[in-house]
Amino acid sequence: MIDYTRDDFTGKARDIDLVLDPFGGVHAEQSLKVLTAGGVLVSLLDVSDATKAKARTRGVRVERMSVVPDRAALVELGKLIDAKKLAVHVAKAFPLEQAGAAHAFLATRPIGKVVLTV
């Protein structure tokens, strides 16, 4: 496991077939360095045209993954959580009235979810 907050993953990982990038921006471009020719970069955010062009020159496919939740899928996730087969790490919870503080906390790049409670 590589802690991206402490280590440069491009110096530790090589010949990777698939990268799932939840950050976008410079992270997407850096991910190209570790992917093999024929590898796939899947981003949860938009990837710049410049990064897509670099990917093409290296034989890397870029895909964007977008998830639209629906009731059935959310119910299934709830069942997995109840069965202790899926755990969600909550970094910190804030009351709705402190949404501004929650947003500021996000700037510290916490590991885990930030939750607003109502």
Q: What topology emerges from the helices and strands here?
A:
Blueprint: E1 16-21, H1 26-31, E2 35-43, H2 49-57, E3 61-64, H3 71-82, E4 90-95, H4 99-106, E5 113-117
Parallel strand pairs: 1-2, 2-3, 4-5
Structural notes for this entry:
The protein is of the alpha/beta class and 118 residues long. 11% of the residues are buried. Helices cover 30% and strands 25% of the residues. The protein has a 3-stranded parallel β-sheet with strand order 1-2-3. A two-stranded parallel ribbon has the order 4-5. Helix 1 links the parallel strand 1 and strand 2. It folds into 2 domains: 56 residues, no CATH class; 47 residues, no CATH class. The protein starts with 15 loop residues before the first strand and ends with a strand.
